[in-house]
Amino acid sequence: MMFSHSPADDPSSLGRALPPSFVIGTATASAQIEGATTSGRRSPSVWDRFSAQPGRILDGSTTVVTADHYHRHAEDVGLMAELGADAYRFSLGWTRLQPGGSGRLDPEGVAFYDRLLDELHQAGIAPFVTISHWDVPEEYEQGWLSRDTAYRLGEFAGLVAERFGDRVGSWITINEPATVTLNGYALGLHAPGQALLFDAMPTVHHQLLGHGLAVQALRAAGVPGQIGITNVHTPVVPASDTEEDAMMAALFDVVHNRVFADPVLRGRYPQVPDELAPMFAAFAEVPADDLALISQPLDFYGLNYYMPSRVAAGAGSGESPDGMSEAMTELPFRLETFEEYPTTGFGWPIAPDCFGTALAEVQERYGDVLPPVYITENGASFPDELDPATGVVQDDARIDYLAGHLRAALDAVAPGGPAEGLDLRGLFVWSLLDNWEWAAGFTQRFGIVHVDFDTLERTPKASYRWLQDVLRARREV
Question: Known catalytic residue: 437?
Answer without folding.
Answer: no
